[in-house]
């Protein structure tokens, strides 16, 4: 099969498996964390260890300072100090990354660069369990690498650079608008009422505010919970809400959605 065909197809599988990993982290489809973790190994995108994804994502859910880059490991913002230290050329790149098209093209590289840098710092600082998580990830990759090389005759580097990167690009569509800085905790997490195939690919995680309110609810329950508690999620005129990814694309395809530096939420500029 031509790479023009298999790279996009496997990229969609990478994105779907990442959505499934998210379900495994939150206790589905079984009640056994070990069995769920076994289903998450290895990450088909190969770029991020499942155990590190799990640890950082649970920290993201536990923090009371959602979106604050000093407290939330999944924050897309930079601290004001880090922003001031950035060269002007890098500021332009990061500003472009805050457009939807820029996020899909540049986002995976920026995300992975920050992630690997921080992981290396943690390992050097002797933070417990991180080096072991990476070792497990490396061992778990042996089976898909054997499959790629012996069965599919595909070089793993081509798979990672093509399918892995493109799969992350697809996921950038979901994560682009998941959160925003706000003084009101109820306006920090989005509801995107999308009915396109993307909502299935993301396992309804576009209803992200519902997921944060009910993190133990399985993906297929989120639409029902949105309808049941719709006034709480969307009753306010300034609710963080989009009618679909088409609306998101129309607004922010080439326009930055928000600043790169974490804003002073006491002024609630967003």
Query: Using only CA atoms, what is the Rg?
Result: 19 Å
Number of DSSP helical runs: 14
Helicity level, as a percent range?
Answer: 55-70%
As laid out across the biggest beta sheet, the strand order is: 1-2
- Rounded to the nearest angstrom, the distance between the terminal CA atoms is 47 Å
Instruction: Report on the biggest sheet.
Output: 2 strands, parallel
Q: In the residues, how many domains can be counted?
A: 2
Number of strands: 2
Looking at this protein, list some descriptive labels.
14 helices, 270 residues, two-stranded parallel ribbon, 2 strands, mainly alpha, globular
Describe this structure in words.
With 270 residues, this protein is mainly alpha-helical. The chain has two domains: 3-176, no CATH class; 181-256, no CATH class. Helices cover 58% and strands 1% of the residues. Strands 1-2 form a two-stranded parallel sheet. The chain is globular, with a radius of gyration of 19 Å. The protein starts with a helix and ends in an 18-residue tail after the last helix. The model has no long low-confidence stretch (mean pLDDT 95).
Q: Any chance you could write out the topology, listing elements then pairs?
A:
Blueprint: H1 3-25, H2 33-40, H3 50-62, H4 80-85, H5 88-96, H6 100-124, H7 130-140, H8 142-151, H9 156-175, E1 191-192, H10 197-201, H11 208-213, H12 222-228, H13 230-234, E2 241-242, H14 245-252
Parallel strand pairs: 1-2
